[in-house]
Design goal:
128 residues; mainly alpha; 68% helix; transmembrane; coiled coil; PLD nuclease N-terminal domain-containing protein
Length: 128
């Protein structure tokens, strides 16, 4: 049991630090670019996550202001469900019109080809 924990705890810590690093905005990563922190966490999977948690991320908000991630949380774009979004529904209607026109063209082409085949068979006569 202890052997398993010795493997699982660093693995869980690595996964947590990796996801935390990926979710951290670029301007909150300290000392190194975020991509460098990702490589450190993954390459040094026992020491890297501890270093990331200790020194890699800005943990306290600056004095007199909010962190950039707090600003991003409060100023996100409001997403609307597709069935409530009039622009999305209009685009579906336009796509449907295009698809119907394409289908009509295909059907007309098919009818034309069938008619040509009937004429050719009528000209050649029945084969015995």
């Amino acid at each position: 049991m202890l052997r398993v924990l010795m493997f699982l705890i660093p693995l869980a810590l690595t996964i947590y630090a990796f996801i935390d690093c990926l979710n951290t905005p670029e301007d909150e990563a300290k000392h190194l670019p975020k991509i460098a922190w990702v490589f450190i966490i993954l390459l040094f999977w026992i020491v890297g996550p501890i270093v990331w948690l200790a020194a890699g991320k800005q943990r306290t908000p600056p004095q007199g202001g909010r962190t950039p991630s707090e600003w991003h949380r409060n100023h996100r774009t409001q997403y609307v469900a597709p069935d409530d979004n009039p622009e999305f529904l209009a685009s579906l209607r336009e796509d449907n019109k295009k698809d119907e026109a394409l289908l009509k063209d295909w059907e007309a082409d098919l009818r034309r080809r069938e008619e040509e085949l009937r004429r050719r068979e009528g000209e050649q006569g029945p084969k015995d």
